[in-house]
Inverse folding.
């Protein structure tokens, strides 16, 4: 027969075991409640010397204090950027990103973890990770960020005694692009033998000025000057008539297909128009208007993410 002391001892042991089991269950339920959340990124490109966006979205969480956003870059020891407890925490930020990063703090609560990168450098290219923790769980997604230079072309129409020519000029591109001319009337024609393209290195010894001239231009026709590299594509379309001409430019930044809202920076677009004088005509920007793009949504069927700048002659 067990003594009173043994009964008390084993009773205490039983209580401890029961309490330990209860604690384990509580912890288990807590862990199971924090599941994986969906994080979405978009492969994008940065224009050297300008501000860029590394796009990332996640499942919204109204508890801002529980949201942690970490941006990391492959090959970089420190963090690119960290946001937690409702504010930036840059104590572990890598030196190469000092003073150059920011998140959209007013949009974090709705699931926007996109990073603004100031003064994009060629060395900013690489693989980034967007890592998110919320009260609902955690998740991450990688992003391939490309850097280069791209600009919209300016179109000029020149006249001489023998023929007319079109001059397509863009101030800064990198890597070196290809330039192809096309005609609405002569669809499928190869204009390489009646055009000349040159590349001039700019003063910073990275980007290059692109100039392409198409000779033997005819009236009542629409020509296209297409400039393209592996980052972006820009096109200048020129409609030549007997008494005047109209031009517009458009382009897109190449990217992978994605789903979800992505914030984009404001974009400026030149509007060009010219009348045909007796000797020469130059299509110069007469005014500028701002095209504000807040969000872009693409379908699964798209292969490229299009960002369009358009200006029409009157």
């Amino acid at each position: 027969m067990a003594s009173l002391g043994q009964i008390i001892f084993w009773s205490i042991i039983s209580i401890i075991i029961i309490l330990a089991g209860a604690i384990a269950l509580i912890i288990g339920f807590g862990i199971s409640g924090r599941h994986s959340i969906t994080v979405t990124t978009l492969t994008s490109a940065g224009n050297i010397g300008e501000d860029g966006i590394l796009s990332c979205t996640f499942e919204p969480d109204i508890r801002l204090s529980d949201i942690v956003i970490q941006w990391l870059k492959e090959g970089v020891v420190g963090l690119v950027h960290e946001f937690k407890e409702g504010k930036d925490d840059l104590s572990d930020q890598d030196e190469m990103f000092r003073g150059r990063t920011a998140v959209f703090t007013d949009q974090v609560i709705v699931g926007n973890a996109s990073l603004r990168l100031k003064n994009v450098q060629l060395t900013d290219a690489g693989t980034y990770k967007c890592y998110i923790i919320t009260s609902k769980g955690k998740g991450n997604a990688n992003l391939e960020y490309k850097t280069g230079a791209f600009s919209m072309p300016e179109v000029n129409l020149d006249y001489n005694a023998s023929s007319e020519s079109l001059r397509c000029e863009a101030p800064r591109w990198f890597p070196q692009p290809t330039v192809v001319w096309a005609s609405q009337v002569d669809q499928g024609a190869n204009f390489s033998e009646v055009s000349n393209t040159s590349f001039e290195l700019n003063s910073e010894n990275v980007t290059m000025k692109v100039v392409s001239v198409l000779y033997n231009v005819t009236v009542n026709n629409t020509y296209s000057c297409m400039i393209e590299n592996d980052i972006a594509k820009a096109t200048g379309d020129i409609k030549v008539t007997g008494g005047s001409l109209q031009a517009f430019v458009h382009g897109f930044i190449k990217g992978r297909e994605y789903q979800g809202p992505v914030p984009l920076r404001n974009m400026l677009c030149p509007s060009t128009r010219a009348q045909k004088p007796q000797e020469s005509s130059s299509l110069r920007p007469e005014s500028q208007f701002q095209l504000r793009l807040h969000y872009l949504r693409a379908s699964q069927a798209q292969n490229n993410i299009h960002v369009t700048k358009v200006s029409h002659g009157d």
Observations:
- The first strand starts at residue 35 and ends at 36.
- The two ends are 108 Å apart (CA to CA).
- Residues 154-296 form a domain with the Immunoglobulin-like fold (CATH 2.60.40.10).
- Helices lie at 4-33.
